[in-house]
Amino acid sequence: MTVVQTGIGTPHPIYLAGRWVDSPDVLVVDNPARPGEPVGATYQATADQYDEAVEAAVRAFDQTRKLPAFERGRILRFISDGIKARREELGALISQEAGKPIRDALVEVDRAVLTFRLGAEEAERMVGESIPLDINAGSRDRFGITRRFPIGPIAGISPFNFPLNLAAHKLSPAIASGNPIVLKPPSKDPLVMLRVAEIIAETGLPDGAVSVLPMSRELGDRMVSDDRFKVLTFTGSPAIGWKMKARAGKKRVVLELGGNAGVIVDESADLDWAARRIVTGGFAYSGQTCISVQRIFVHEAVHDDFMGRFLEGVRNLRQGDPADASTDIGPMVDEKNAERTQAWVDEAVADGARLLVGGKRNGTFFPPTVLTNVRRDARICSSEAFAPVVVVETFSDLGDAIASVNDSTFGLQAGVFTSDLAGAWNAFHELEVGGVIINDIPSYRVDHMPYGGVKDSGLGREGLRWAIEDMTELRLMVLAWPQ
Predict the structure, then answer these.
(1) What total number of domains does the chain contain?
(2) Which domain holds residue 323?
(3) Is the same domain home to 342 and 406?
(4) Do residues 415 and 434 make contact, with C-beta atoms less than 8 angstroms apart?
(5) Mean per-residue pLDDT, 88-113
(6) pTM above the 0.90 mark?
(7) DSSP one-letter string for 75-138
C-alpha cells in the first residue's frame, strides 16, 4: 500500500474485502463547527476497487451463507464489544466529523453497541414455521416447513447524521443473515466507520464479506443499478431515494427516507412532559434527523400554558462547541444547509409567519427557531426542514389535528401527547405513518423496533428482525409420506 502524506497527516486507508488500500483520490473530512479545519482524511475508491469489492462479495457469499448461527452471533458480539471498548474514541470522532454534540455522539456509540448485539441475538433465532397442509383429501399426509435463506450481496448506503448507528443498521442484519455487504459511508463523515472496520477486520469473517468504501456519487450510482447486488438498502433524502428505486432493477430496495414529523399535544396531555420532550425532539442534533419534530399541533385550550413551558425550554438550550459536554446544539452539517434553512425561514416570515424565537444563522450555526402562522404550503412546513426549526398550530378537535398531521407527502412517525385512551387508539388507527408514539415524541426510536415510513418517507422497515426479512428469501419444503 502506498502511503500518501497530506497537510493533515496520513489518510486512513479504506477497507476492501479484507484488505486496507489507498487510492489516488484523497477525501478530506472537515469539521462542521470550524469550516475549513480538517478532522482527517481518507480515500475514495476507484472504479476498479469498486468492482473488486463487488466481485469479492459475490465470491464470499458461498461462505457467508453457510456460516452457522453461533459463528454469526460470535462475530457480531465481537464487533459490539469492540465498539464498546473504543467508546470515547469513536464518540469524539463522530463529534468532530459530524458536528454532533459529544453527549449525543456517545449515545450514538452506545446505540451501535446495542445494534450489533441485537444482530447477534437475531442471528441465533432465525426461526421458521411448520404448516399443516392436510386441509383437503388431496393433501393428506403432507406437511410444510419454512426457513429463511440469505439472499446474496447487499449494497448499503448510509447517511451523515448517524454515521455509525445507521451504518450499523445495514451491516448488522447483513452479517446476521449470512450476506456479504459493500457499504458506502457518507462522504461528509466516513472516518468512524473506517475505525469500526478495524474491528471487523479482526472477526475472522471471510474476505469479501464486508467492504467499507467511501466513493464518488458516480460510483454510488453504479451500486444502485449493479445487478450483482440482490438488495439495496439506502438511508437518505426522498429525492435521491425514489430515483434510486427507479434504477435498481430487479433487486429488493429498502428506503429509509425523510419526513416532516408532526406531534399533537391534546388538552389532556401532561404539558410539562410534552414541552420537555418536544424541545428535545425538535432541536437535538440541530434537527438533522428524519424524525425530528417539525410540526406541532396544540389544542387551543392548553396552547398558552404549553407554549410558555415550551419556549422557556427552547431559550434555555445552549448552542456552542460540540466537543463541550454542556452543549445542547452544535452546528449544522455545512454552510450550504444553514443557508438553505435561513432562506426557508425568511420566505415564511415574508409570507406572514410570526417568528417567536431564533431565526438568524451564524455561519454553520442556526439557532433553535420557532414559527407560528405558517402557511401549510411553505417549504419550512411542507418539505423536510432537517434543521432546528419547528412550526406551531392550534386545533380544537383531535380528528382535525390527525388530519393536519396526515396533510403531508411524508409519513414516517408521529407523536401524540394525550391521557385519553380512546384518542390514542383513534390516532393509531388514523395516522398515516409508519409509527405512532403515544406520550412521547416522533423522534423516539429504539434499535430493535420496526422502523420505517409510508408515502414519500420510504419503503420497507429497518430494525434487526425486519431488516433480516428483506435480506433473506422465504423457502418452503413440503414433506409427503408415500401412500
Answers:
(1) 2
(2) 262-446
(3) yes
(4) no
(5) 98
(6) yes
(7) HHHHHHHHHHHTHHHHHHHHHHHH---HHHHHHHHHHHHHHHHHHHHHHTT----EEE--SSGG
